[in-house]
Amino acid sequence: MSTFGGIRHSPSTFTSSPASTTLFRRLVWEGTVPLEIRVDSKELPANSNRGLECYFLQAPRVSYLPLLISEIKRFLQDVVFDDEAARTMKEEDWWFESEEGHLLKWHWPIGLIYDNHTTLATSRPGASASSRPQAVPLRLTLHLASPPTDRLLLAPSAEACKQAFMGQLKEADFLRWGNTKRMTGLRKAEQDGMWEGIKEHNFDDYWRVASKVTPTTLPARPGSPPAAQSSSMHTRPPSADPQGTPDKDSAYSVRSVPIRLYLPEGPVLQDLAPPVLEDGGWSLPSIISAQSRDPRISLLLMHLLTTASCYYKGTPNTLADLLSLHLPLLFPAPGPGASPTLAYALLQGVVTPAEAELAWLGALPSINQDVWIHPTVLRAVDMVTSLRVTVALMAGMQ
Amino acid sequence: MALRPDVPHSPPSLVGGLDSVVDASLAEGLAALESYKKKDTVKVVVRFKAVGNAPIMKQNFFRVTVSNRFQAVIQFLRKELGWKAGEPLFTYINLAFSPAPDDTISNLYRKSFATDGHLIVNYSTTAAWG
To answer: Is Transport among this UniProt entry's keywords (chain B) (predicted)?
Structure first.
């Protein structure tokens, strides 16, 4: 974790980032979900230890199903299959299905697959509006043969998964800057190093390289006072000097924030998402307006927004702006006589305040930021509970 | 791209306390989601551009409904080129990135920053931007 007494602006230096951004990146990185993997009983080879063909694991959200295969294979070899079956198993024919019979895609991060499942579960008519998604294991069925290759879209190999991941990195790079120079500027060893970081689930290895291609959340102006320490609750007064040029690596300078909206049964929506709205003039940090909100929520908001409080030309584009632009039926624009909000946004399994700035959200991952839309009114008590968990996690990390 | 709704809007009933308000809101939310599922019928022109030794097509632009996934474009391209499933075919948007096959033409068009109704798809026999 880097300190930032001063702000360096050498062209290749992305490494300085406010401590709280690194904290949130680490929180996201360390998120896991419970999986229960069961071999299709009709496909169990003869002489298998029936009754034991179920494997439980806590998988990282930022990993991929092909990367779990060697672990599952070892389990099946050691515990379930007899020698003959263990010898002849062909993991290139393996594929996964959800409990409901949905084919699981190799190139979707495990967290995305899990959130897909919980969103669907809570979006059915009759789903209790008061039940928050519980951390129940996601039940997967492992098939050992006859993969539906036309629908799987990718081979199950780790290599194909790596290529897909690299593609997503380049896509995000292109969205942010209009070119892929930052990705193609990496040496091959560095690019491979990013994938190794994912495979080995090593935060430092991954972000050592990823920080070169992922925007910073540093203040947009060079020479401005350093962003407040993450433990500080004080706002930083805006500078009176409007002459500063924006930090060219800043999340607030990107052309478009790579962010995708997932509706429970589709579609997946993605459009250009500018980090700052061109509404002219200079604006104060949005943290000022956050102070007038519910005090239970402002705690998290202030933490989230403190590091984003920079001096912009125009107002920062928020998740609320994006949602009411693209999903006005669910997120009507606020104002007198406005209809109520009918859904909430879930990001990495965490309820996300609609006031969160897109630029900051988009700087957490290197690839697209995936946001799930849940069609239910989140009651105030659920919101506070969810935030308390997040705040406790943050406090524990410091 | 605005999604035109035709969901009747009625405020949730307040009779029965908070739970019924919440349930009514859920019903309204689900109805909204149904309307968002409706497939966009807008079309854009996909313009195929050969890279390297890849053969140039006689007819290289086609109108595609934006709700299609990119996978459909890949399959269409293979058919037009007469290439079987095993033969290597690499596709890129704007010579920049290789899209996820389940991404929609709608999203890719917007992500390519195109403004003229054309989505440029480059195709190659080798991984050009590895």
So the answer is: yes
User: Exposure of B75 by Cβ count < 10 A (0-12 exposed, 13-18 middle, 19+ buried)?
Assistant: middle
Mark A160-188 as b/e (b = at least 16 C-beta within 10 Å). Answer: bbbbbbbbbbbbbbbbbbeebebbeebee
- Distance CA(A245)–CA(A20), nearest Å, equals 24
Q: Any idea what DSSP says for residue B48?
A: E
Model pLDDT, residue A11: 33
A272 touches chain B (CB under 8 A): yes
In A, minimum Cα distance to B27 occurs at: A125
A330/B33 Cβ within 8 A: yes
> What's the gap between Cα B54 and its chain centre?
24
Cβ separation of A379 and B27 shorter than 8 Å? no
Main-chain dihedrals φ then ψ at residue B61, nearest 5 degrees: -135, 145
Using a CB–CB cutoff of 8 Å, tell me whether B104 touches chain A. Answer: yes
How high is the ipTM of this complex? 0.84
Q: To 5 degrees, how large is the angle CA A273–CA A22–CA A220?
A: 50
Nearest-neighbour CA in chain A from B57: distance (Å): 24
